[in-house]
Amino acid sequence: MTGATGSSDLGVALLWVVVGLPAVVGAVLCLAGRRADRPAPAAAVVTASLALVAAIAVAVLRPETAVPFLPGADFGLAVDALSAIVVPTVVAVTLLVLLSSAAEIDDRPARFSGLMLLFAAAVGVTATATTLPALLFAWEVMGATSFALIGYWWREPDRVSAGTDAFLTTRAADLGLYLAAGAALAGGGSLVLADLPAVAAPWRDVVAAGVLVAGLGKAAQLPFSFWLSRAMQGPSPVSALLHSAAMVAMGGYLLLRTSELLASTGWAATTAAWVGALTALALGAVAVAQRDLKQLLAASTAAQLGYVVLAAGVAGVSGGVAHLVAHASTKALLFLAAGAWLTALGTKQLPALRGAARRGPLVGGTAAVGTLALAGVPPLSLWATKDEVLAVAREQSVALYVVGLAAAAVSAAYAGKVLWVVWRALPADAESGYDTEEEGTRRVHRLQKAPLVVLAAGAAVLGLLVWPPVGEALRQALGEAGASRPGVLELVVSAVLAVAVVLAVARWPLPEPGWAARWLGLGAATEVVAVRPVLRLAEALARFDDRVLDRAVDAAAGLVPRGAGAAARADDRVLDRAVDASAPGTVRTARLTAEIDDVGFDGAVRGVAAGARRLGALARRSQTGQLHHYYVQAAVVLAAALALLLVVTR
Amino acid sequence: MLSLIVFLPLGAAAVLAVLPAIPDRAARWTWVAVALADLALVGVVLAGYESPAEGGLAYEERLRWIPSVGSSYHVGVDGLSLPLVALTAVVFLACAVYALREDRRPRVQAALFLFLQSVCLGVFVAQDLILFFLFFDLSIVGMYFVIAGWGHGNAARSALKFFLYTFLGSLALLLGFIGLYLAAEPHTFDIPELVAAAPLADNPGVGGLVLAAILLGLAIKTPTVPFHTWLPPAHTDAPAIGSAVLAAVLLKLGTYGFVRIAMPALPDAWQAWAWVLITIGVVSVVYGALVALAQTDVKRMIAYTSVNHMGYVVLGVGAAGLVGSAAAREVAVTGAVTQMVSHGLITGALFLLAGVLQERAGTYEMAEYGGLAEPAPRYAALFAVAAFASLGLPAFTGFIAEFQIFAGSIGTTAAAALALPGILITAALFLRALQRLLTGPPQGRAVGFADVGVREGLPIGGLLALALLFGIIPWPLLDLITPGAETVVDLVSR
Predict the structure, then answer these.
(1) Model confidence over A382-411: pLDDT tens digits?
(2) What is this model's ipTM?
(3) For chain A, how many structural domains are there in total?
(4) What are the chain A neighbours of B290 within 8 Å (beta carbons)?
(5) Are A184 and B406 in contact (CB under 8 A)?
(6) What is the domain range of residue A627?
(7) pTM here?
(8) Does A218 map to a domain?
(9) Are B411 and A68 inside 8 Å of each other by CB?
(10) A350 and A494: one domain?
(11) Which of A358, B88, B212, B318 is the most exposed, fewest CB within 10 Å of its CB?
């Protein structure tokens, strides 16, 4: 705990404001629907402003809190040195994007603002979560709101399916966090993020693998990058928030936060570093080949996040977070500028945007700052933050450094491509290229301009995060005081490289190879390797279910009537016939019995009766009625009795 | 108190059944009033409930019933049953409100559903196997009449299939119960006594056979792959509220049987069979999700997601039978019981939503719709929320359940990770359904589709609101379940 002072109670309350207020207001706006359309943009801006004030306060107060959630795993939130930088950045970008979208989104603004606020709340929790359940909770809500925001124009099926792609790809990676939670329980029992490096050995590797996959998926690193291309179907303000400062950046942020865990396994950190470096290079090449401004910016986002992931892999957390924040400001600026041109001119195709910067110097000027920062031109922010990351990488592997430097040259190329296209002379037939995607308004609203200025300032000066004194304090707070820093030579090399490439792009056209233009075929590969086989398997199983399992049950059930029929037949044919057949026998037996009865038993009975009759007749003879007969009989009986008595007593 | 809760609906059902003079309107509102009163009584029980000591029961009642076979009228609740009692009361109230629009024999329907409510509550409070079996079987009879009497399509055949299949299951269950009775010394059907005695602990052969009979009975009811084929036709042809009750409550009778009877009374056999259960669980999760993904009929799709969701429950309780950290296994069982409640709330809402399609346009075929969000924004919003809740999005109970099931069972055996693709496929199928039904330009039967009104929106929204409430603040629910789950894990580890 960070000491129970009075300010920490206030800090806890403010932390709940940062995450709770946007959540509640967002939910209310979504539920209220059309009724809230009129006040929604203002309500959202006010909410985000209050959240920003609270976010700055918690960055100072560093509160820590936990509420009961699951048994043995609280819903823990805390602001530490890392989140103290990221949370205010995200909330500030949210505020600026909401300002801009107040002018840009006129179709059901209540739902739009509500979803944006819900998203911002989820990002706030993601950034401050201290336990896995809290992290996963916010992580997936972030994914779901991004689905709803990318597919915001739901009448167009293509945009909704882009949202589906984004959600499913990131959720596929999110399975890693479920796996990590299980492995953490198996290998130690604690779901606190800070305890993960202490998980017992075989399980710790599973935890690290799960976290790594989840982070790479959200950060649109290889091989998950394709969803980000599809996500460009969403409104520009959505990209300005989700695909610069928040969602995608949170993938990199998670890996920065868990860099100790990654390092503890040995292999996970190395993997992260190389995936990051290669994504920076490969997706940079993809960006170079794009002709659609938003597609170019999307590929560039994945590439720039590659540096953050590289930083997480080489444990250069301070440089990584500085790059993350500087890139957030730069990319939000460029997406908003792209959105401003899209609403004004009705196109985001680079050939059609030729000279667009000259139509309005404010949008053009801020966009120039953004592209130059992206190119790594000194003294703008990304030049310094990227070198900070590369310096730590070089310490570990020169190969990583070389790949990273090559990626820097590539980023100068795609940034230069945008810069020169929009700043060339406005062609006379410019109007003919406009309004290909929507009816342009030909003007940029005041509310769209103001955020550009703020973000351009950020893109210019956020490099201060690596220079003393701010950088020194940050490194101190993150325990990286002794980390390697870029030398003068490296800074000069990267600066010269950036300037040279940008100038070269002005002179020579860039190649646009098909493999890069098609995003390395990642979308097609996903379709072939994952989507189609799964759908085919699903259909096959559904047929199996209907035709085999269900019919087997029906057939088994059908056997019952058939069995019953067989039993009924057996009843008729066997039992009944047996009975029938047995009947004559029974009769014969009965007759025989009757004969025996007649001749035997009955005869015996009759014989006994006849004997008795004869005896009776004999007895009757003595009863003559003559007195002398009775005397003789009495005398005989008495003599017999005497004789018997004599015999017995002898 | 429990008896009052169980028999109040039955009494009302008897009155409604024998008085044909009751007007339809009065019958409908009587049903709502009785369901509300029953829920209020459950609320009183919940308010006064304190977790009993290990293995004990609260609100226990025991009366002589059939002493000659050692069977008594024995009821009581604990952390495993009370959430399901509350779920039952909530779901039946939602159905009563939803059915306020019903015009087909509403009096008889109200009586039948009140009867069904009584027997379902009876199963969850029963602490005697004969009593359990009696209520269990009567629920099948009640549901048969619901499908046959108020269903559509091929209702008679589906109802018969449902009846015969699940009745067969209940016979297997009875066989197992008699096995337990005979094995216990002295013979008894009393569940706490059987649990305390664990009668077949030293007879693995017979114990395995008895458990097999009970598992077969419960697996058919739950249902798990491959005994699930009665479920899709029963759901497809059942009326909306029939489907809601079937999915939300009746399926739980099966899974509840695992934690109430099979696990604590046959711990050794359960440990021996744990791998079978885990396999069935994983297969049900993945197979159910994949088959659901291929469906074109909304209701069949939701029915198959039930197979998937019940697969998580089987996985969680199966993992509890393994040797492993007790804490992880408790998490898995807590998650499994949470999933029963969560699935009841969310799938109940989804089936009511599917019923709205049938009532408005006469079909569940997704291809017949498109762009419903335009004519029916409230319907679209409710469907989208229910779909995300069902795919396990955090902030809804499904996440609380599935996170615990996965964390707990992966924490016990790494093999449980094989079920992880289930949550991805579920997400895919629900997003596809959302896309087909709700988005794009309105077409087919979506044109002129009337949006949901209060009497439909209130029960659906209410169920989802509860899923949201306990998804954000899960501890009141988990505080209830966890002691029960701990007891079960202790008992099954004997």
Answers:
(1) 999 999 999 999 999 999 999 999 999 999
(2) 0.92
(3) 2
(4) 534, 537-538, 541-542
(5) no
(6) 563-637
(7) 0.89
(8) no
(9) no
(10) yes
(11) A358
